[in-house]
Amino acid sequence: MNKPIPLVAGMLLAALSCFAQVKKTTASKAEANSLLWKITRQDLKQPSFLLGTIHLICPEDFLWTAAMEESFHQCREVCFELDMDDPATLMAVAAGMTNPDGKTLKEYFTAEQYLKIESFIRDSMGMSVGMFQNMRPASLQGLFASKALPCAEPLSYEAKLTEQAADAHMEVTGLETAAEQLALFYNMPEDTVVATLLKMATDFSEEQAKFDTLVMAYKNQDLSGIQKIIRASETSKGELEEFLDERNKKWIERMEERMEQRPVFFAVGAGHLPGIYGIITLLRKKGYTVQAVR
After folding, report:
1. Nearest Cα residue to 100 out of 139, 136, 140, 141
2. Which range of residues forms the domain containing residue 127?
């Protein structure tokens, strides 16, 4: 499989996470110390599992415990937010990052703003802004977010687990289509996107510090800590509901359909797990027992 395309999909997922970083709820004590959850119910022949991920992370920070490995191999299917094993899905994501109406990247910014973006891409990324003229501004969010990592070649949980699934002859599926996820990504107000990019380009050290703190909480399997970092963002209530709550509600039915057929290892962004509209609570409301696994 072509490695850059899964990485592009990982950047899209990372960008969605950045724009959805507010959650005005608290995690229970039990939810504060595990990224891996076992899902059972009387009518299920075998348990399924739920793992909270970070979409892009440095190799030395990649967290994969013995419990995660064991749970993974108890399942027959791996299900991500997107189907990372479908070439059509990955190509659709890559194509969706370009601007179909011919509007160039430069046209979204004032002359002064564009100089800031151009300087950041040149000085911090070693690239020419000309490479991105056909891209939508929101596409740059994923690229900028990936540069917050202090390593040259970040790992994607989705790409890594897809490789393991292939070795284990496990089916790979997704909870959303590329069109559904791209619609979320590109329906964001242009002024919000522009403001976010400018903030990152102006003070990227702040972005890096936030990410370092997030990775520390993630490695500690601290959903409560992840919640505190997430809710410090400025995302509006409406955007929050669209990026997290509404997607979680939609996913539950799709998760149920998959679990009825076979044991599934679900791997989605950790921000989707906790809270009153988080996957853990929503599954429990449907009668499932959802238990932390360490």
Report:
1. 136
2. 4-293
